[in-house]
Amino acid sequence: MTQIRDVMTKEVETCSQSDRIYDVALKMKEWDVGVIPVVENDRLMGVLTDRDIVLRCIAEKKPPSSKVEEIMSERLITVSPDTTTQEATRLMAKEQIRRLPVVENGKLVGIVALGDLAVRDLTDSLAKQALSEISEDDGEQALH
């Protein structure tokens, strides 16, 4: 079985809780990503998503100079590099999330997106079904 370590993105741009939202948004644009993990002393503290910026910053009229810690998603669902792609896909479907930080010994070592799993056909039809269901969900998600 394929493990997450075989498909995860290993070079992940991160930010800290004290970074300004504006600066992290620029990183998102530069890296063409919708999520940036928030790390302090090598420990994953949360994530900042493009959705967090829209809903918790812009919609609440917070200045873009606000700190990441004010709006980041703190409820994290993670996997280890040894997790199988099938297990990760099931977890994403169950939790209705699109991305999973990959953590080993408390340290962020990568990230895997549901789209990576579905597009690469590494899992059964569950990945495609989960992607379809999550894409239809308009509700608040723990990790988007």
From TrEMBL:
Keyword Glycosyltransferase among UniProt keywords: no
Alphabetized PROSITE patterns for the sequence: CBS
InterPro entries found in the cross-reference section: CBS_dom, CBS_dom_sf, Diverse_CBS-Domain
Entries under SUPFAM superfamilies matching the protein: CBS-domain pair
PANTHER family: CBS DOMAIN-CONTAINING PROTEIN, CBS DOMAIN-CONTAINING PROTEIN CBSX3, MITOCHONDRIAL
Name of the protein: CBS domain-containing protein
Swiss-Prot/TrEMBL keywords: CBS domain
Domain CBS span(s) in chain numbering: 8-65, 72-128
Organism: Siminovitchia sediminis
Pfam families hit by this protein: CBS
Protein origin, superkingdom: Bacteria
